[in-house]
């Protein structure tokens, strides 16, 4: 593989993760400038040639929306600079929770984001743990959908007593994900069934499954305000669980999330670095996904299969 044809750049959303990915790939980050004006407007410019190069732009698109628009400007700049391939590496794909019309007269935000990325000139998307798998179909370019299970499963095997472990989903939407983990280790599964009247506000919740005397591991893709996760942990303890821990791919952790986690029954929360933490607390352990992304970049450039990078 010719690494000289590959150039990796980052926006301002998560430069530390980008540095780790570039280092794991065996290169340094390219020179890109995000210039900001006093009125809040900004622009992106490459300070080195990318003509004929395969350009990988690392930028998770968590809030604010500036991170998404930064990526769009980076893609447009690469296209206008005659890059050969433009790959948007989005460890966290923002607006993914808006994947369908769940009530009348609402936007489908993830489809709109897909349209904007395509219009900007992206030739490939690389992302991790989409909130809904079908979002891949919103794109007319190849999508490499990676899974945090690649780093989570070895951690579970090394740090948990599998003989007493139960895998749990904090809501019915996460049942498929939790079931995949449970089947991999041949474990029992529990589900928290919740009802909501409005977003981020739970009306009631109940546990389906036997967790009495068990160590419960809650599996989720996104933790926003942590209300669902913490209430699920409380319910598990009420149902007789010996301990409760959790794993989450994308630690959005907004609003009261950190305070809720501190006060919750959760003994450990394991997350990835797709989104940088706003602050570090003792309960949170971060696993890096940099080597996974670097391996996939290498396989793409070598025209090799990336299925070996998936455990489940």
UniProtKB/TrEMBL annotation:
Function: Involved in the biosynthesis of the central metabolite phospho-alpha-D-ribosyl-1-pyrophosphate (PRPP) via the transfer of pyrophosphoryl group from ATP to 1-hydroxyl of ribose-5-phosphate (Rib-5-P).
Keyword Disulfide bond among UniProt keywords: no
Superkingdom in the source lineage: Bacteria
Keyword Nucleotide-binding recorded: yes
Record's catalysed reaction(s): D-ribose 5-phosphate + ATP = 5-phospho-alpha-D-ribose 1-diphosphate + AMP + H(+)
Protein name, entry field: Ribose-phosphate pyrophosphokinase
Family from the record: Belongs to the ribose-phosphate pyrophosphokinase family. Class I subfamily.
One GO BP: purine nucleotide biosynthetic process
Entries under CDD domains matching the protein: PRTases_typeI
InterPro entries: PRib_PP_synth_CS, Pribosyltran_N, PRTase-like, PRTase_dom, Rib-P_diPkinase
EC number(s) given by UniProt: 2.7.6.1
Swiss-Prot/TrEMBL cofactor(s): Mg(2+)
GO CC entries: cytoplasm; ribose phosphate diphosphokinase complex
A GO MF label: ribose phosphate diphosphokinase activity
UniProt-listed Pfam families: Pribosyl_synth (PF14572), Pribosyltran_N (PF13793)
Pathways per UniProt: Metabolic intermediate biosynthesis; 5-phospho-alpha-D-ribose 1-diphosphate biosynthesis; 5-phospho-alpha-D-ribose 1-diphosphate from D-ribose 5-phosphate (route I): step 1/1
Residue intervals of the Ribose-phosphate pyrophosphokinase N-terminal domain: 6-121
